[in-house]
Every structure is written in structure tokens, then in C-alpha cells.
Amino acid sequence: MNYIAYILLVAVIFGLVALVDFVLGKLFPKSELSKKGQAVRLPRYSFILGILLSVLGLMAVLILSPQRQLALWLGCLVVLGIGVFLLANFFGFAIYYDETSFSYRTLTKKTRLFHYGDITGQRSFVAKSGVNILLYAQGQEIALYSAMQGLRPFLETAFRGWCEATGTDPDSVEQNPDFFSFFPEK
Prior knowledge:
Blueprint: H1 2-27, E1 39-40, H2 44-63, H3 70-92, E2 94-97, E3 101-105, E4 112-115, E5 119-127, E6 130-137, E7 140-145, H4 151-166
Antiparallel strand pairs: 1-2, 2-3, 3-4, 5-6, 6-7
Helix pairs in contact: 2-3
Keywords: Membrane, Transmembrane, Transmembrane helix
Transmembrane segments: 6-24, 45-64, 70-97
């Protein structure tokens, strides 16, 4: 009997993952730039942590009795919520780019298309977590950090595109690629 319950629990978990994947696919459709394969994504550990917290939280919520252990059950429900948020944030954030432009979306903002000529500057600063970058374009502030997947190639492509769009000589701009600083300080 216990084996059937475990098999059903695994089936429910896989079903929920498929449902979340389907819903996120509908909520965050891919842009034309995403077909080229060049993207900046959040670090993989946020996806892995989201999966772990979601599965642990879901298992504990299904196994524990809310009548007997209400505080523990509510805590597990919070853990489940945090895991779902991490997964939604991982799938909701993306920067897709090519040689002329990039599209940017987050969990709370719709996809916006920027051309490299729209970039007005950046700020880079070191924190305990690594290098944080604020990229400014069309009055928007795009927050990036060094742990993101594909960040350096994106910034290098954006810098080349910005130099072409603004007619700036790349050698005339002070850069520090080790600190992801490519554009003029704003």
C-alpha cells in the first residue's frame, strides 16, 4: 500500500511540474530574439533550489496533518511558496539578444525591446555576492549580476553594438571587463 502512495505522490509531483511548465509557457511567451539562442538567464542554482524547496514543501504539506501540527504545516506551506516563487522568477527572467538589439523581461515586467543605441550608461559595484551591474537604457534600470549565465558575452555584444550605433571609438571608452564595466559610468 505504501508503494502505491509513493508512486501516486511522484505522479502528482511530475504532473504539477508539467502544469507549471505549461502555465509559465503561456504567461511568458518567447520572443523572436529567443530563437537565436543567445540569452542571459538567472543562475542554475536558483532553479535547483526552487525545485528542492517546492518538492520538500509539497511532500511535507501532503504528509503532515494541519489539525495536529498546524505551525509546522504552515511553515512547510511557506517553504512551498518560496520554492514556487524561485521557479517562477527563474523562468520569468530573460534577456535575449542579437547583434542589433535585446529584449528584457522579468517576472513583474513585460518584455521590452531595446536597441544598443538606447543604452545611456552603467554602474558596476562589488558586493559580497559578486559584481552587480545596473545597465541604463531608455530611462529603465536593468539589474544584472555576475552569477548570471551568459552575462559577459551579452555585455561584450552590447558594447560592440552600442559603439556602432553611437559612432563611438571602442578604445576611447574606459572599460574594466573583470568587473563587467563596459559602458560609461552614469
